[in-house]
Amino acid sequence: MIMDTACEANLVLGLSCASTVEFEPLPPNWSAAEPSLTLGLFESANPKTETEARKPELGDKESCRAISDEVEEEGIARKKLRLTKEQSSLLEDSFREHSTLNPRLKQALARKLNLRPRQVEVWFQNRRARTKLKQTEVECELLRRCCETLSTENRKLQRELQELKSLKFMQPLYTATALTVCPSCKRMITSTRLLK
DNA sequence: TCGAGCACGTCTATTACCTCA
DNA sequence: ACTGAGGTAATAGACGTGCTC
Predict the structure, then answer these.
(1) Residue A190 has what pLDDT?
(2) pLDDT attached to residue A149
(3) pLDDT at residue A28, rounded to an integer
(4) Burial degree of A194 (CB within 10 A; 0-12, 13-18, 19+)
(5) Straight-line distance from CA A172 to C1' C6, in Å?
(6) How far apart are CA A119 and CA A116, in angstroms?
(7) What family does this belong to (predicted)?
(8) Separation CA A173–CA A161 (nearest Å)
(9) Going from the N-terminus, what domains does chain A have, and what CATH number goes with each?
(10) Helix, strand, or coil (residue A189)
């Protein structure tokens, strides 16, 4: 089941969207600091869930705890909320600007997206983890290619060495092999020359 | 000045749930 | 209808940092 709005998303949690609520105005200077929040999503109808509506304003940890307690008390299994495209998109925009949250931005985003601050916080945590994982995969691939190149180079040098050894065995008095550094590419090269 | 205790934020590993092929 | 894989929201615990006493 794909949810199209934050309200519908809340229905996944078995919460009602019947009640509407007015949101507190944002701090006077936040829009300049957090331009991504000026998109105006969910501005007209931002229903809070019943759970949120009847819950007193709490700090992040407390609100999270309150919901956990409530879920525990009522014996409700943890339900998964699917963020809407609009919610994800705004979070992404915000993440592109700052990959970490400050408390004010967290509150503002939560209000804007009709999510709990804890959900915004979790989203940023998971987003950072995903970014890091992707980055690690890219670096891993880079190292793998580098390793392949070095292996190929190593095999080539081994072959060259074998050739030189056999050459030396055949003409011990006439040739000498020297290792020098190529001035252009800065790599070690071998040179063979006649002794007489 | 140093250390203990606390609050808070972040990271990491893991779980739980959802969607889709 | 069932199932396994993959994606991701949520949780738990460890750790670092700053502040206060």
Answers:
(1) 66
(2) 95
(3) 31
(4) exposed
(5) 64
(6) 5
(7) Belongs to the HD-ZIP homeobox family. Class II subfamily.
(8) 18
(9) 6-128 (1.10.10.60), 133-194 (no CATH)
(10) strand
User: What distance lies between CA A75 and its chain's CA centroid?
Assistant: 34
Q: Looking at residue A158, what is its pLDDT?
A: 97
User: Residue A42: which region, alpha, beta or left (left: phi > 0; alpha: psi -120 to 50)?
Assistant: left
Alpha-carbon gap, residue A152 to A113, rounded angstroms: 53
The nucleotide closest to A133 (CA, C1' atoms): B12
Distance A102 CA to B18 C1' (A): 30
**Does the CA dihedral A34-A36-A38-A43 come out positive or negative?**
negative
CA A94 to C1' C9 (Å) is 18
Instruction: Tell me which residues from 20 to 79 on chain A have a beta carbon below 7 angstroms from nucleic acid strand B.
Output: 59-61, 77-79
Q: Which nucleotides of C are covered by protein (CB under 7 A)?
A: 7-12
What DSSP string runs through A40-93? Answer: -TT-S--PPPHHHHHSPP--HHHHHHHHHHHHHHHTPPP-PPPPPHHHHHHHHH
What pLDDT, on the 0 to 100 scale, is given for residue A115? 87
In this prediction, residue A148 carries a pLDDT of 92
In 3D space, the residue among A87, A70, A60 whose CA is nearest the CA of residue A13 turns out to be A70
